[in-house]
Amino acid sequence: MTFRWPVSGYFVAAVLVLCAPTLLALVTTPRMTNRWERSDLPGQAPQRAAMSTCTGCHGSTATTDTTHFLYDRARLTRKEWSETLNLTATCGGCHETPDPAQLPSERWTEAVKYMYQLQYYLQPEPAPDTYSDWLRPRRDEYLDVLHYYLTFSTTDPRLPPDPAISGLIFQPTTIGAPIQTGSPPRISNVDITDLDQDGRPDILASDFNSNAVVWISPEGDGWRERTLVRAPYPGRTEVADINGDGHMDVAVAVLGTDIPSDRRSGGVALLINDGSLRFAGKTHLADVGRVSDVRSGDFDGDGDVDLILSIFGWIKEGEIGWLEQIADGNFVYHRISDKAGGVHVIPTDLNEDGHLDVVALIAQEHEEVTAFLNDGHGTFQPHLLFKAPSPTFGSSGIELVDLDQDGDMDILLTNGDAVDLESTMVRPYHGVQWLENRGNLNFTYHPLLQLYGAYRALPGDFDGDGDIDIVVTSLLNDWGDPARKSLIWLENDGNQHFTARGIASSPTHLITAAVGDLDGDGRPDILTGSMHFEPPYDRLGRVTLWRNTGTLWSVGE
Fold it and tell me: Rounded distance, CA 75 to CA 41, Å?
């Protein structure tokens, strides 16, 4: 989980001296965008249009000062206003310049406020005493940017209804510990593995409520849960024989906090298996930003297991690096990239040169998929594979799979993170994308599904027809609508044309998933974890097994 809402405490002083925006009026008042495009208005018409513009939002509180610089903006087209503002420099210095259409009108006041708060936060020390002191000389610029985005934004189109439940039947079963009354579950990660190497699948789940990684294993006709290790806000787990003794060990990405923060609270913990399933824990990296992912691989070609990790951090803290295993099970850390916002880091030999590279998803202001190409000795060079068109894209996860089965690795990308601002929002451009590998590190973008809050997309041949389907979870959705789906699968026709089919609307807030045969019937099942960090709390889940029955819904069911 990579929560990205702003830290509370940064509040903006009242700077809108011209007038106080009334967003409800902005939404309900008919828009007059044509006035901006007309250059043939005679005499005082541009001035009248400007005054009409202000009163359309502000009513009688609008200033009558026709010398105010914002009245001059009424004579400009959108392109002219953008160029006058120099938005490429004002808003594009840190990230792609956002289009006004990328947020609804009612959210731009909050968004522009947040961006200026971040600018203040990023000032070198010593910064001005207060945000108000810092903002005062930037007041006109602030108003200019704000009114540009308010003027040219609109309300959001609503996505059509999610697909009806159809196709395969997946039977849900809650496994592990029961849900505690008054404590909505907050599972950040689930993995399917065989920790005890008995030939049956085990489950590792990271639980924010108990600050623990738990091991859920089959026992009789059910499942037994026990605590593997306590850690502050654990994230992803990686199971591998890290010390080379033939037993499965566990690496844990430790976030250290569940709120966005540049506090160096994160780390990497290793649980070393003594062979009798007793695990000795040791922290091998600490005093870093929030660690969101850890994976294993031999990145320097010396025959032992190293670890690649993403440190999401927040704004000032965050990077991608690797832990090189040296003698006696110790590790040395090397930074690869200083970009904050790393979500996933997945090892693969992407350029097929025999060396293990890394494909990374980096969110925050970057919103990109980047390959870090390995020279075989642990030195990595970045190569951009995909850049989202907006800093509001909301990248939430990647998965590598040869989706079209042409012999190279493609990328499944989800964007559904929507907690950058003080309150969450769903976006009509959230969904699932296929980045098709065309060779020579070139990838072609294919949108597959629009889904509010899409968070994980995982491959599997769920219907057993030989091609690769996809299962998708939703974390943040319009949960007030009971028909919105938390779990969907995309049926592949064999030519990468996908039909979206609903699986369930409950439980909600599915942040994590894994795919594997959990009941031994040869069919891939689905495992999900719920992160109920905000209301509604009416469809709770914790760890849910969705057993693939292999049968189809009948018409009318």
Answer: 10
- For the segment 432-447, what is each residue's pLDDT rounded down to a tens digit? 999 999 999 999 999 9
Q: Could you tell me if 396 and 416 are in contact, meaning their C-beta atoms sit under 8 angstroms apart?
A: yes
Q: Find out whether 320 and 345 touch, Cβ atoms under 8 Å.
A: yes
List the one residue out of 541, 422, 433 whose CA is nearest residue 7. 422
DSSP-derived secondary structure for 131-147: HHHHHGGGHHHHHHHHH
Six-digit token pair at 379?
A: 């030195």
- Is the pLDDT assigned to residue 7 strictly greater than 50? no
CA 7 to chain centroid, in Å, comes to 17
- Residue 184 CA: distances (Å) to CA of 511, 527, 530: 14, 18, 9
Quote the DSSP letter at residue 94.
Answer: T
Q: State both tokens at 292.
A: 């969101």
Nearest partner of 233 among 215, 250, 256, judged by Cα: 256
Number of neighbouring beta carbons within 10 Å of residue 324: 17
Distance CA 347, CA 358 (A): 4
**Is 297 in contact with 241 (CB distance < 8 Å)?**
no
Mean pLDDT across 470-478 = 97
**8 A C-beta contact, residue 215 and residue 248:** no
Residue 187 near residue 533, CB atoms below 8 Å: no
Residue 254 corresponds to which tokens in the numbers above? 């430790």
DSSP state at residue 502: E
pLDDT band at 64 (very low <50, low <70, confident <90, very high): low
> Of 269, 224, 278, whose CA–CA distance to 251 is shortest?
269
Which amino acid makes up residue 31?
A: R
187-193 sheet: strands from edge to edge = 187-193, 202-207, 212-219, 222-230
Query: For the segment 98-114, what is each residue's pLDDT rounded down to a tens digit?
Result: 899 989 988 999 999 98
Torsion angle, CA of 238/240/243/248, rounded to 10 degrees? Answer: 110
Q: What is the pTM of this model?
A: 0.88
- Minimal CA–CA distance to 254: which of 292, 212, 227? 292
Q: What is the helix (H) or strand (E) element at residue 149, kind and residue range?
A: helix 139-152
CA-CA distance, 253 to 335, in Å (whole number)?
16
Percent over 70 (pLDDT), the chain? 87
Angle at 381 between CA 379 and CA 384, to 5 degrees: 155
**How far is residue 448's CA from residue 415's CA, in Å, rounded to a whole number?**
12
